[in-house]
Amino acid sequence: MSRPRLTIGTFGDVGFQTAPNGRVTARARYRDWDGKSRLVQATGDTKRAAEQALKARLAERSLFQQSGIGLSPDSTFPDLVAYWLEDLDLEGRLSKTTRQLYERNMRTLALPVFKDLTLREIGVARCDRFLMQLAKQSYNRAKQARVALRLAFELAVRHEVLPRNPMDHVSRLRKPPSTPNALTPAEVNAIRAAITYWEAGRSPSGPKPDGQLGAIAEVMLGTSARIGEALAIRRRDIDVASATPSIRITGTIVSHRGEPTMRQDHPKTAKSRRTVAIPSFTAEAVRRRLARLDDASLDAFLFCSREGTPVTTNNVRRQLRHVLDLAGIEGVTPHMFRRTVATAISNEAGVDLAAELLGHTDPKITIQHYIRRNEMVDPRTAAMLDRAFGKEG
Question: Is the model more confident about 373 or about 262?
Fold first, then answer.
């Protein structure tokens, strides 16, 4: 009668052999994940010790032995990173920008610390200490490192290379308290004046103005668009002829490493596509800009290079920095225009409308990251207190 075939992950009868020095070797046939049966052995001072050592080795092999991926708990951390990045590419779910961000964060933040360690050596305590030390330098960098590490170790768990994800039990990162910074109307007008002065050619230094920066600022102020979304606006997205002028936000400008700058056919998220009614100051800037466009096609960019190609977000940031430095205005970024719009709308009509304008699905995001808190308490309290405690006579 033939012996029944082992199923994957199981082992056969254990055999023993005693060496002249008294050490006992325990052996058993084990059927690996590739379906092949292999001899596995372990030694001990006694038969019982050898058998226990063999069973421990078989249990570990059963848990971690994998087919085709070439990873085990004794693989190095760089091996996992390489496999994780390859898996991201195969999955093809991430945008190129996010994929490059993950790789950059892993290679610049985590790899220098963990590159000489095997996967089994990277536990909760080591990860926790790494993130706490990094958070002392920068909360944002610690947060980005945590995301990349969690995803990589999650892949190792999913493919049964590791029994658990060490990132599941690290301490929570505590974000330093901060208040979103927005511009006041006076500051907005000072920025407008600085840009107008520069575009008029009165500045003694810097790149020659192309007349677009002022219009870009007016579009961001009138739509709440991110800088990449504003630069992605095409003639077909604009309606300034109707009673209610509007701009449709349908894409963003992206610059992937090693590739030309291009228009992505959806904003930061697909859900943030929206049509925005624009105020008169934006409509006026857009009409002037349209009148200067040489390309009459519907796909022509509202803001473009002399060749008609997309303007890079870095170029606009650099121009804005240069202009405001000349004017002695510090700390202003394109994204501050978005926070300024959110704060103004929230003060006038509430956070829900501000979130809708910004393309947020959750108003909590708008409150936490975009609206500057108004420290002025409702002045009606003064009249109430007068009525309650005012002096008689």
Answer: 262
Does residue 149 share a domain with residue 237?
no
The verdict on residue 249 lying in a domain is yes
User: Residue 202 — very low, low, confident or very high, per pLDDT cuts 50/70/90?
Assistant: low
Category of 344 on φ-ψ map: left (φ > 0), alpha (ψ -120 to 50) or beta: alpha
Q: What SS3 string covers the chain?
A: CCCCCCCCCCECCCEEEECCCCCEEEEEEEECCCCCEEEEEEEECCHHHHHHHHHHHHHHHHHHCCCCCCCCCCCEHHHHHHHHHHHHHHHCCCCHHHHHHHHHHHHHHHHHHHCCCEHHHCCHHHHHHHHHHHHHHCHHHHHHHHHHHHHHHHHHHHCCCCCCCHHHHCCCCCCCCCCCCCCCHHHHHHHHHHHHHHHCCCCCCCCCCCCCHHHHHHHHHHHCCCHHHHHCCEHHHEECCCCCCEEEECCEEECCCCCCCEEECCCCCHHHCEEEECCHHHHHHHHHHHHHCCCCCCCCECCECCCCCECCHHHHHHHHHHHHHHCCCCCCCHHHHHHHHHHHHHHHHCHHHHHHHHCCCCHHHHHHHCCCCCCCCCCHHHHHHHHHHCCCC
> Mean pLDDT of all residues in the chain?
87
Same-domain status, 93 and 162:
yes
| Domain total in the chain | 3
Q: Which whole number is the average pLDDT over 133-154?
A: 94
Task: Measure the CA–CA gap between 82 and 77, rounded to whole angstroms.
Answer: 9
Token pair for 188: 């907005």
Q: Are 252 and 237 in contact (CB under 8 A)?
A: no
pLDDT of residue 61: 66
- Cβ(212)–Cβ(303) below 8 Å: yes
pLDDT of residue 32: 72
Co-location of 110 and 246 in the same domain:
no
Most confidently modeled of 294-298, 325-329, 365-369? 294-298
- Identify the residue with better confidence: 167 or 328: 167
User: Which residues make Cβ contacts (< 8 Å) with residue 178, sequence separation at least 6?
Assistant: none
On whether the CB atoms of residues 10 and 31 are closer than 8 A, the answer is: yes
* Structural domain boundaries, residue 134: 77-169
